[in-house]
């Protein structure tokens, strides 16, 4: 009784104009003995049909004399002596989308199993591979280690792009990179032995990164006129107490003015504003805007608070309008005096 099995990914996604590697290993009982008895060993990849029939079957690859059908090139890169049947299919076109069956020929008449899920003693579908061909690559997968960050916590971003063709892997680039970010990029094997290019970006969360959209771009080289570029993006959510709290006075002149307490905070929907007059303990108002008259000289400030903290603005000074009127007069007076002096001097020189 023979036991035979092969392990390969159930599906691989290939890109037209590129290649696709099928990672593959097999196991056969008494392989060494069989190899001793055999004249030769070669492999066959059958397209679409699991049933091996010398006249009916579409043999895409026969490694015996490197016979290739329907493909421009196929190479077995695995070493059969190491139970490795890894194979690369080149110059993929749309009509290569299909299920492929691996068959080992140990001749003459020693053993010839097709690694087929439909045979009685092998119900495992991982013994065949389905190649799914796409004209454009899948966008890279961009992941954050957390949905939200507090300030100074570490943000870890990972961007992964499938690399079905190891000789033409994609390139990953980032946009909107924070200053303190460090990036490492490497090819990694997934559990099914297919490869992906992973790029990791790490940086400390700053409130300035809140709502920042970070994009990861993967570019796939291909044997077609244009490379393919696909991207993924995420928007950062940083939680922070009020920052840059300041007061805006409108209008800039006039007796009746509105003071607005401006701030940046996250979240900003639970913001509480409090107004104070300098020198007085008690708040004068609890809202974003207040209306005041410039009837007396006084300083005001506001505080903004969310669940992460609180910040006070600088003071703003409102001066009595009559005083500012006075200063206007002084400025005009000075300008007038200067003008008169220049005129007199000119006259003096002219007369001389
Ligand atoms: C594979 O190729 C060899 C050499 O041409 C040939 O003898 C053999 O019959 C082929 N195998 C199959 C299954 O077609
Ligand atoms: C697949 O399509 C290409 C052209 O796109 C053609 O040259 C080739 O013969 C086709 N192969 C098969 C197996 O139909
Ligand atoms: C099988 O061969 C391929 C190509 O040489 C190699 O990359 C892979 O690591 C091998 N797999 C194992 C399990 O040795
Ligand atoms: C000042 O202006 C606000 C609106 O801009 C108005 O509601 C308020 O009545 C005005 N107050 C005075 C004293 O004119």
TrEMBL record:
The chain crosses the membrane at residues 329-351. Keywords: Membrane, Transmembrane, Transmembrane helix. InterPro entries: Ig-like_dom, Ig_sub. It holds the Pfam family Ig_2. It comes from the Eukaryota. Residues 140-235, 242-319 form the Ig-like domain. PANTHER family: B-CELL RECEPTOR CD22-LIKE-RELATED, SI:CH211-171H4.5-RELATED. This is Myelin-associated glycoprotein-like. It comes from Cyprinus carpio.
């Amino acid at each position: 009784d023979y036991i035979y099995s092969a392990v390969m990914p159930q599906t691989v996604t290939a890109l037209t104009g590129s290649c696709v590697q099928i990672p593959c290993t097999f196991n056969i009982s008494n392989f060494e003995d069989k190899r001793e008895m055999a004249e030769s060993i070669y492999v066959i990849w059958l397209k679409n049909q699991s049933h091996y029939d010398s006249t009916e079957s579409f043999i895409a690859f026969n490694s015996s004399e490197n016979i290739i059908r329907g493909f421009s090139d196929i190479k077995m890169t695995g070493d059969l002596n190491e139970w490795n049947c890894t194979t690369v299919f080149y110059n993929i076109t749309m009509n290569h989308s299909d299920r492929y069956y691996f068959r080992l020929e140990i001749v003459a008449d020693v053993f010839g199993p097709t690694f087929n899920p439909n045979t009685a003693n092998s119900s495992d579908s991982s013994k065949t591979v389905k190649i799914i061909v796409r004209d454009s690559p899948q966008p890279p997968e961009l992941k954050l280690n957390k949905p939200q960050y507090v300030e100074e916590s570490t943000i870890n971003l990972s961007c992964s792009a499938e690399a079905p063709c190891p000789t033409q892997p994609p390139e990953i680039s980032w946009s909107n990179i924070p200053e303190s970010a460090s990036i490492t990029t490497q090819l990694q094997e997934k559990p099914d032995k297919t490869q992906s290019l992973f790029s990791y970006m790490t940086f400390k969360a700053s409130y300035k990164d809140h709502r920042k959209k970070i994009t990861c771009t993967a570019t796939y080289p291909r044997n077609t006129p244009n490379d393919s570029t696909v991207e993924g993006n995420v928007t950062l959510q940083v939680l922070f107490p009020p920052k840059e709290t300041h007061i805006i006075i409108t209008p800039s002149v006039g007796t009746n003015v509105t003071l607005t307490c401006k701030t940046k905070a996250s979240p900003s929907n639970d913001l509480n504003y409090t107004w104070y007059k300098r020198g007085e303990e008690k708040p004068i108002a609890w809202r974003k805007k207040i209306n005041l008259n410039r009837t007396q000289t006084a300083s005001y400030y506001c505080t903004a608070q969310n669940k992460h903290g609180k910040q006070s603005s600088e003071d703003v000074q409102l001066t009595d309008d009559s005083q500012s009127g006075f200063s206007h007069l002084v400025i005009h007076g000075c300008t007038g005096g200067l003008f008169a002096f220049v005129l007199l001097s000119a006259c003096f020189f002219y007369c001389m």
